[in-house]
Amino acid sequence: MPGLSRDRLILHVGLPKAASSALQFWCDGQRERLAAEGVDYPDPRSEHPMKKHHALVPELLKGRADTLARDVAESRAPTMLVSNEGFAPRYRQFPRAAADALAGAAGGRAVTLFLLTRSEEGWLRSIWAQRIINPSIQRAPLIFDTFDDFVRRSDARWLLDVEARGAEMQAIAQADQVVRASVEEDWFGALLTLLGVARRPGDAPPRIHGAAPPHAIELVRRVNALPTDQPNLVRSALLAGLQAELGTSNVTLANTARVFATHPNEKRKQSSSLLATALRDVDPDPGPMAELHAAISAWAERGSPDPPRLG
């Protein structure tokens, strides 16, 4: 793609659940190398474990792009890459001022959108699981739909028309083009080509933010469906327990477990007690879900302030 590596701002805008974490962790870990090749991946400026540019979408929702403008002004690299997959599911909520803010923040650089996609079935299942475990990513309520019910929802399917969504985002960003790549193909190679960065032997994106197993997702879905006055307390104990039991690479589970461990003992006891009550009303499927249900229930029934541990 000749000409794309000079005086350019590349915005990775999603889709969510399409290799975003792998892209962000690789770029953040290779910032010195990228800088040597004329590409700036700005410091995410956040203590959050994810390596995206967290400020971008919240600021655009307010019609601003202050952090982006500062990063562009401070950069001397001919190419800048900024990543926040929350752009795609939230851009329809941006006020009109967001387009002007983006144009001003770009500082005269040409803008390219980088849009990662994936197969419909795989993407819908990942979004369904995300809405069950971590709806805050899309500022959506917890759901307890089955997958078959979820895929019939219009709010689940609208992003799948990637050509139309890409055109709409291109208009907002006043981008000269949208470069699309599929996670089922060599999206990483497409990224390096777009950046003008030579691929080296052994280059590969990391496996980050892996999915929780299906039986764990289904257990959380069933708990979500139960009436409770304090769903956040129940959820924090359940997700901390899942992470302790399963040891996943899922960042949501790991981060929830980390935060849960910092809560005062009384709050952890309260959460575990509420979870114990909820789990009594869940009838798990035989097999892995029943084993997981039993292990977490035993811990919660004891009212222990510590996360559950197997073994």
Features:
311 residues, alpha/beta, Rossmann fold, 2 domains, 9% strand
According to CATH, the fold-level topology of the largest domain is Rossmann fold
Overall, the morphology is elongated
C-alpha-based Rg, rounded: 21 Å
Please state the average pLDDT score. 90
Report on the structure:
With 311 residues, the protein is α/β, with parallel strands linked by helices. It has 2 domains: 8-195, Rossmann fold (3-Layer(aba) Sandwich); 214-302, no CATH class. The chain contains 16 helices and 5 strands. It has helices at 20-29, 31-36, 56-61, 66-74, 87-90, 97-105, 120-133, 147-150, 154-157, 162-173, 187-195, 214-224, 231-246, 251-262, 265-280, 288-302, and strands at residues 8-14, 39-40, 79-83, 110-117, 177-182. Residues 1-6 have low confidence and may be disordered.
Annotate the secondary structure layout.
Blueprint: E1 8-14, H1 20-29, H2 31-36, E2 39-40, H3 56-61, H4 66-74, E3 79-83, H5 87-90, H6 97-105, E4 110-117, H7 120-133, H8 147-150, H9 154-157, H10 162-173, E5 177-182, H11 187-195, H12 214-224, H13 231-246, H14 251-262, H15 265-280, H16 288-302
Parallel strand pairs: 1-3, 1-4, 2-3, 4-5
Helix pairs in contact: 4-6, 12-13, 12-16, 13-14, 13-15, 13-16, 15-16
Can you describe this structure in just a few lines?
The chain has 311 residues and is of the alpha/beta class.
